[in-house]
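It is worth pausing here to work through a concrete case rather than discussing structure prediction in the abstract. The textbook approach is simple: state the sequence, then state the predicted structure, then interpret. We follow exactly that order.
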Amino acid sequence: MLRTRNSIDRLAVTFRSGRVAGVGFPIPSYRRGAFMDSLITLRIALRALGKNKMRAGLTVLGVVIGIAAVTTMVSLGQSASGLVQGQFENLGTNVIVVFPGSRRREGVREGLVPTLTARDAEAITRECPSVLATSPIVGFQGQVIYGNANASPREISGVGADHLVVRNWNLRTGGFFTERDIAGANKVCVIGQSLVAKLFQTANPVGEKVRIRNIPFTVIGVLERKGANMVGEDQDNVVLMPYTTVRKRLFGSEFDNVNVVLVSARSLPLGPQAQQEITQLLMERHRIPPGEAADFTVQDTAEIAKVLGTITGTLTLMLSAIAAISLLVGGVGIMNIMLVSVTERTREIGIRMAVGARSGDILRQFLVEAVMLSCIGGIIGFLLGMGASLGVTSLINSFTSGTKWPVVISLPAAGVAFLFAAAVGVFFGYYPARRASQLDPIDALRYE
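Step two, the predicted structure:
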């Protein structure tokens, strides 16, 4: 036994000197350029992983599951945020909504009363510098009849001349009513495409007359299609006409009250300033003393969208954090396998160090193997996560009748997933790699 150990010791010394006894050429040195060292390290890592394909596959499974779960959660979260943002964009451009409030009479709150007027909307447009346009709204419910066909629109609304500017809505054919139509309460209307399909089918509706409460109205335009909203309501099943026409012709009222006022700020950053200007103006117009509650409510839809975006983002982050737990499990699996690999390859490590490999070379070799395992798992997991998010989005869209969820494939999420997988490999592979690099070459050569 002593003779065998002495032989191993002499062999190690011979390896370190760069020559093997009886061989006339030197053993190739590890001290080459950085590029060649990297290529050799990659080749050795691939060869080592290829020898145990089943074990390597089971090792990366934890990383695959973790990255797939995180990618799916992030994609679905971004899809939900995109859906919410799209709904508010459909509502209009930088829209602020002014609702009527409640009044107190002899200390008793009356409830919702019509405290807003069309003159309030005109004053907001005229006196608020941050406001682009306004549109007073007067709602009505009824049937629309054309010839022998009839339909019940989701919405019959009296609006202002700038309604399409506020709602960011275009006309497909025809035109929109003017201030002259509003002043004269003219019997004209603009309809959505759902009503075109129900009442006119293939006929051109522009210039035709429809009846609402047996009153004839001339169709002067057709709106572009908007589709269903978040809750499945058809936004194209609508009739728009001057608010004075609805109030006088359909309700028979001479009052100037309106149900709500839609306001468009000049830009998104000016939304809070426009909201403040509207509040101050209406407090003065409604003669509300300082310290008393307003008889109206001003809501910025951008703020609502921001709150909903924060909620969906928080839920996405929470679900992603839960899914990331499986990444820790995958990292522990990589550490265990690398420790086993160090034990199995102790003699190989001794030979490499005897022929000139430094501790840094051994450390880098095992780190590269660990990172390759995690990166392969990250790529496979990301692809599976994208497939899962596409499948879940399609499943949701097949069961919902509202606005379809957008399909989101996030390239930043792919980059983060890849980097995170590499970080897992470095973190959990460092200890086994460091342990391998600190082996004594003599003891490693003696290892059986």
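Step three, interpretation. The first strand starts at residue 95 and ends at 100. The chain has two domains: 33-86+311-446, 114-294.
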